[in-house]
């Protein structure tokens, strides 16, 4: 289930995010303002703007996969300023996530996870996924979504969830 | 891991939400306005207000647990208007979640989940949890958090995540 969560579901959500950002661009074009206005928007003055929300979201997915599979974490310099650059950042993470297989997470649940800012402390892979990575990923995703929604972009729950695997 | 996610982690987040709502009440009191203003606030005119976000969040947790364990879903009439009533609603769900044990989810991953509005279609328990319940739960939680944050309540990522299980 770790592979399903940290790779397949996160990848699905990142694709949903690409589509949502495109709807933001279309809305800006229709309403005759620069999409950069949306990229620079935030929901509170002391909270990250849309660009930074997406960067953090990308890092959450990347770090989650790498830490649980005990691999090197690729570095991204957070230099994105435009929508194409931001979408490229998302594509880069999608491409990175696609290099993982279920076997990479064979020992992930019990793996000891440590992060630089944790000052030498650690938690298990399962704790890291459920209590840290998952809530953080959806937090930044939802804030990015809400920045657009708050600014009048016509998106809804279906854009957020994406296609659901209904069977007859 | 289903019990850890749908019961333990959701319960933890609901307790975080109780604390966040209390911070909202304190902020309203300090700034001399009725907390009802926050409860009626929303981030977009055609989106749910804070009360409704919390109600849907509560239902998402309740339905997730009941459906995955194949139990009857208790009904709640969505009549909450005040902060004490809203907190009571959350307490009711916390109490309901506490009746579950890990054994209740022994067959949850492969269980066929169907919901009234799905028009006879279904998905597996794992798909339901990862692609429906989890993203929905964190969506409504984050929107509730952001409604307060947008209205100047001083809360941060630690209030959202709660205590993390760091070990030395």
Task: For the structure shown, list the relevant keywords.
mainly alpha, Four Helix Bundle (Hemerythrin (Met), subunit A), two-stranded antiparallel sheet, 6 helices
Give an overview in words.
The structure is a homodimer of 168-residue chains. With 168 residues, chain A is mainly alpha-helical. The first copy, chain A, is built from six helices and two strands. A two-stranded antiparallel sheet of chain A has the order 1-2. In chain A, helix 3 runs antiparallel to helix 5 (125-150). The longest helix of chain A has 29 residues, at 2-30. The first copy, chain A, is globular, with a radius of gyration of 17 Å.
Explain the layout of strands and helices.
2 copies of one chain form a homodimer.
Chain A: H1 2-30, H2 35-39, H3 50-69, H4 83-97, E1 112-113, E2 123-124, H5 125-150, H6 157-161
Antiparallel strand pairs in A: 1-2
Helix pairs in contact in A: 1-3, 1-4, 1-5, 3-4, 3-5
- CATH-level-2 architecture of chain A: Up-down Bundle
Strand element count of chain A: 2
The percent range for helix content of chain A is: 55-70%
Q: What's the main sheet of chain A like?
A: 2 strands, antiparallel
- Strand content of the residues of chain A, in percent? under 5%
CATH superfamily of chain A: dinb family like domain
Task: Give the CATH topology of chain A.
Answer: Four Helix Bundle (Hemerythrin (Met), subunit A)
Largest interface: A-B, 43 and 43 residues
Mean pLDDT of chain A: 97
Summed up, the domain count of chain A is 1
Order of helices and strands of chain A: HHHHEEHH
**Rounded radius of gyration of chain A (Å):** 17 Å
Can you count the helices of chain A? 6
